[in-house]
Specification:
- The protein has helices spanning 3-9, 31-44, 61-64, 108-120, 140-148, 162-177, 208-216, 228-236, 240-243, 248-261, 323-328, 382-387; strands at residues 18-24, 49-53, 84-86, 89-93, 129-133, 153-158, 182-193, 200-201, 220-226, 275-277, 299-304, 308-313, 317-322, 356-362, 366-371, 378-381, 391-395.
- With 396 residues, it is α/β, with parallel strands linked by helices.
- The chain folds into two domains: 13-263, 3-Layer(aba) Sandwich (Rossmann fold), CATH 3.40.50.300; 299-395, NE0471 N-terminal domain-like.
- The strands form three sheets. Strands 1, 2, 3, 4, 5, 6, 7, 8 and 9 form a nine-stranded mixed β-sheet that branches.
- Helix 2 crosses helix 10 (248-261).
- The protein is elongated.
- Bound molecules: adenosine-5'-triphosphate.
- Keywords: ATP-binding, Hydrolase, Iron, Iron-sulfur, Metal-binding, Nucleotide-binding.
Length: 396
């Protein structure tokens, strides 16, 4: 174990604890809101979660979690700071040490020193995940911070505007240069979700976060729509995941949290559950890694183009199944005779241009699919998909 590991491990569980930095190229993109919500989502999964509000210049995590600004931390008998607690999350923030709202004027080395203290000199107890909400930017401070801790990896939050994405790309490159693993990109304020019908309107450009993720070969963790309730929930000190768990944005936060801790993943496959809207790409599950000796019935990546559905399996096998073939292979009671298994669906009634519109996980064994003809009752088991006739793409 390195000295740093030992320091970070002080007062807390070692080994499995994930130390995840949440970063952004510029301020105001919703990084702290993402941190607070994924922390709550992880705590709701039963994980022991801590948050270090490392955004020393604009500490906002305590407010978002309803922790009173004037709540000064107590000290343990061995002179460690006892973190505040809310929603089952332990929290340490600069806001809890400074006396007023004025931003702390600290030089880079001092910031690192404070944060070393927040990570190492706080009575965290046993933790599964410690999230670091970094200050915005891609300068020296972020670089020093990224190197100062044995990070499991970093998440980069961006908004869909070009300028924000360009800065995010710079941040990603910087992390890659200093060998900090990139756990993925989150695109926040990605379209406006209509409260009554759930339809997402893309106010800014669309899909940029995903494009940068694929350009740099890092996972795309998900898109969070603009939801006015997010602001209200943040201001009220009750994060959306707790205030409105059924909202689209809350579900997006939960999926990001699941992807980060590998929950829902079946034996290293896609993080489950997911609900992928193919029209705008929301909810698309992040790719999981193939592995040597991997299973033939575990899906590690899904993609879709004008030809059909690309499925990559854990054993490295890749398959392209035509959209119309998927529809024709539906095994629901309306499409197949339940007793004989003989097709009921008349192929001449299935348009050549049919395409899936939504794909979602069913347990860890199957996919549900909705199609452009309105049909949505088919269950496609992984085994049946693997056995389907397909264009063989490649074996790696
Ligand atoms: N998806 C969203 N929909 C609507 N409002 C949002 C969304 N995400 C964040 N916000 C709002 O945007 C504002 C900025 O969010 P937040 O403080 O999390 O950004 P930040 O990147 O951490 O900022 P800073 O870098 O300045 O600390 C807040 O008022 C927050 O409630």
């Amino acid at each position: 174990m390195t000295q740093q590991d030992a320091q970070v491990g002080q007062g807390g569980g070692q080994g499995e604890r994930k130390l995840i930095a949440i970063s952004s190229g510029k301020g105001g993109v919703g990084k702290s809101t993402v941190t607070a919500n994924i922390a709550v989502a992880m705590a709701r999964m039963g994980l022991r979660v801590g948050v270090v509000d490392a955004d020393i210049y604009g500490p906002s995590i305590p407010g978002m979690l309803g922790i009173a600004g004037n709540q000064k931390p107590a000290m343990s008998p061995d002179q460690k700071v006892i973190p505040a607690e809310a929603f089952g999350i332990k929290v340490m923030s600069m806001a809890m040490l400074s006396d007023d709202d004025s931003p702390a004027i600290l030089r880079g080395p001092m910031v690192t020193k404070y944060l070393q203290m927040f990570v190492a000199q706080v009575e965290w107890g046993e933790l599964d995940v410690l999230l670091l909400d970094l200050p915005p930017g891609t300068g020296d401070i972020q670089l020093t911070l990224a190197q100062a801790f044995p990070l499991t990896g970093a998440v980069v939050v961006s908004t869909p505007q070009d300028v924000s994405l360009k800065i995010a790309r710079r941040g990603l490159r910087m992390m890659q240069q200093v060998n900090v693993p990139i756990l993925g990109i989150v695109e926040n304020m990605s379209g406006f979700a209509c409260a009554s019908c759930g339809e997402v309107t893309h106010i800014f450009s669309k899909g940029g976060g995903e494009a940068i993720a694929s350009e740099l070969g890092v996972p795309f963790l998900g898109a969070i729509p603009i939801e006015p309730e997010i602001v209200d929930a943040g201001d009220a000190g009750i994060p959306l995941v707790s205030a409105h768990p059924d909202s689209l944005a809350a579900q997006a936060y939960v999926r990001i949290a699941e992807a980060l801790v590998g929950r829902g993943a079946a034996h290293g496959g896609l993080a489950l559950p997911f609900d992928w809207q193919l029209s705008d790409g929301t909810g698309k599950p992040a790719d999981a890694a193939p592995m040597s000796g991997g299973a033939a019935d575990v899906v590690t990546a899904l993609d879709h183009d004008e030809i059909g559905l690309m499925i990559r399996w854990q054993d490295g096998h890749a398959q392209l199944i035509g959209s119309r073939d998927l529809r024709l292979n539906c095994r629901c009671a309306a499409c197949r005779d339940e007793m004989s298994g003989a097709p009921i669906l008349d192929p001449s009634r299935v348009p050549q241009t049919i395409t899936p519109t939504r794909i979602w996980s069913l347990g860890n064994y199957a996919l549900g699919m909705a199609f452009s003809d309105g049909h949505s009752s088919g269950i496609y088991t992984f085994k049946a998909l693997r056995d389907m006739q397909s264009a063989e793409v490649e074996d790696v």
